[in-house]
Amino acid sequence: TYNRYLGVLTGILITSIIQSSSATTVMTVSFVNAGILSLIESGGIMMGANIGTTTTAWLVSFLGFKVKLSVFCIPLLAFGVPMFLIRNNSIKNWGQFIIGFALLFLGLDELKNAVPDLKNNPVVLDFLSTYSSPALLT
What we know:
The protein is built from six helices and no strands. Helix 1 (about 5-20) packs parallel to helix 3 (about 40-65), helix 2 runs antiparallel to helix 3 (about 40-65) and helix 4 runs antiparallel to helix 5 (about 90-115). The chain is mainly alpha-helical.
């Protein structure tokens, strides 16, 4: 992210890969707080994250929900942990980066699985329908 245009491309790429502009924004703010990125560099990444959200919508419209990123979690961890244990700082940093993405993919998958399917859950639909009555607001 040496310039703003590269920051925008980085934001687009990261958001398209992890399919979450919120996660990209949280990571960017964390990097600014840690001193890894400057505030000006983070602006380009956040703009790219917004563009990347659109790119993600295009990917979903073309591929549907057939591609599961959580499948890559364990192989990424298996690749990243040994890199993290190497003494070379450059390789160790790449290992941390890979481990972070693997855990992010795993967390996003767990969040997706934790939310119930509202269309096929009659108990939740009945619960919500009791609160949709207009008489409740009067």
